[in-house]
Write a structure and sequence with these properties.
The chain is built from 14 helices and 5 strands. With about 425 residues, it is mainly alpha-helical.
Length: about 425
């Protein structure tokens, strides 16, 4: 497969076609469009239900957060629409520029960004006074660049110097820049990249060596977490000076909370997980019904990191399974798109972005049901809006751009065959 280079314009349809109705302008995978509609409607319901304590804290009405989320959804749908109208090969051309820009933004964020809990993840945009998480742009730029590299290096993909290094080095740079302030996002990016490289025919031996090297610091963190936890007194001990810098204590604390979650914690590190468990247990099979959550008054970040627990409480296990099904359906449609796309860049790009979103969703849901340590990642298209929500919409728009071009090529083939 090779890159598509025949580009008539940034926007494929001509001006006369813009007079048609919205349905005629909206192309791409109809199932993915339907998934967007379903998840955003669920988002409206759950965000409205889960922001009661937040509204009380800031002396606002819950309706204000409902309208805010509705505004983000409208803006997000517009982002999807315009992104899907752009010929996806344009993203290949700007991938290198965005990748370099994201490196500078991450460095700037580390030194001058908004600091919270010993981590600097955001920069504040002037005029609109909105915080912007630079890791969201960085991972999108990385997967564009990675898809471009994989499509261009297929002839030498098994070679270490010519094939592997030009692909793994950009991944390592982005992950190392994000890790100090957001380790969970860094690990999700690394995992998604490894999966994409495996599908892109990168040498399995090279990948296994990379995974082995990456597991060393993770193993050290788990070892320190176990050795600095007093099982008898059920409390964390003081950390050695080497592990008391930056967000390392936070990482170790989350590992300890996860590993010893069945025990009472006098330091209340497991408060979030315990409240999530209460919410899930209260929901049962059918749930308490829309707007009837009780855990929203006690569960921190119930509108973002732990919104899936609210879904399980209000809509029960059946509602939770439905959410899992929707994300898996989205992944299936994107894999189907990968197999149908005749051009390498588009195929890899659609697969990379779908992996990123679905793995993030699985991580969020896994944290809520205590399968994974607390990560702080949101549930795509459902958690309360912000820069992460808009970048999720941009990713889906790019996927639909690939789908639209595949649909157009299939239509041309049908015309030729007739």
């Amino acid at each position: 497969m090779a890159e598509q280079v025949n580009i008539r314009s940034f926007f494929t349809p001509n001006i006369s076609s813009m007079g048609g109705n919205l349905a005629s302008k909206t192309r791409g995978d109809r199932v993915i469009w339907g998934i967007v509609v379903i998840l955003t409607l669920i988002s409206l319901l759950v965000v409205y239900s889960s922001t009661g304590s937040l509204a009380y804290k800031y002396s606002k009405s819950t309706e204000s957060y409902l309208f805010k989320q509705f505004g983000f959804i409208i803006l997000g749908v517009l982002v999807i629409y315009f992104a899907h109208r752009v010929n996806y090969t344009i993203y290949s051309r700007v991938a290198s520029i965005l990748f370099v820009a994201s490196i500078f933004l991450l460095i700037y964020t580390y030194f001058f960004g908004v600091k919270l809990n010993e981590g600097t993840r955001w920069i504040k945009l002037p005029v609109i006074n909105m915080t912007f998480q630079t890791s969201d742009m960085a991972k999108l730029a990385l997967f564009m660049y990675l898809s471009r590299q994989l499509s261009r290096k297929q002839n030498v993909i098994k070679d270490f110097k010519k094939g592997f290094l030009p692909i793994i080095v950009p991944v390592a740079i982005i992950c190392l820049l994000i890790a100090p302030s957001n380790l969970s996002t860094s690990l999700l990016i690394a995992g998604t990249s490894i999966m994409l490289m495996f599908i892109g025919r990168v040498s399995t031996r090279h990948l296994l060596i990379t995974i082995g090297l990456a597991m060393i610091p993770i193993a050290i963190l788990f070892t320190v977490a176990v050795s600095t936890y007093d099982k008898k007194e059920q409390r964390a001990k003081d950390l050695p000076a080497l592990f008391s810098v930056g967000r390392v204590p936070t990482w170790i604390g989350r590992i300890q909370s996860f590993m010893y979650s069945k025990k009472e914690d006098v330091n209340e590190k497991q408060y979030q997980i315990n409240q999530a468990k209460i919410a899930i247990a209260s929901g049962g099979w059918k749930g308490l019904g829309p707007g009837n959550s009780r855990a929203r008054n006690f569960l921190p970040h119930s509108y973002s990191d732990f919104i899936y627990a609210i879904i399980l409480e209000e809509y029960g296990l059946l509602g939770g399974v439905f959410i899992v099904f929707i994300y898996l359906l989205f992944l299936y449609r994107c894999i189907r798109l990968y197999r149908k796309c005749p051009y390498a860049f588009g195929a890899f790009l659609a697969l990379a972005l779908s992996f990123m979103l679905v793995i993030q969703a699985i991580a969020n849901m896994g944290v809520n049901v205590n399968i994974f340590p607390n990560t702080g990642v949101t549930l795509p298209l459902i958690s309360m809006g912000g820069s992460s929500f808009l970048f999720t919409c941009l990713s889906i728009g790019i996927i639909l751009s690939v789908a639209r071009n595949v649909e157009q090529l299939e239509g041309e083939k049908e015309v030729i065959s007739q």
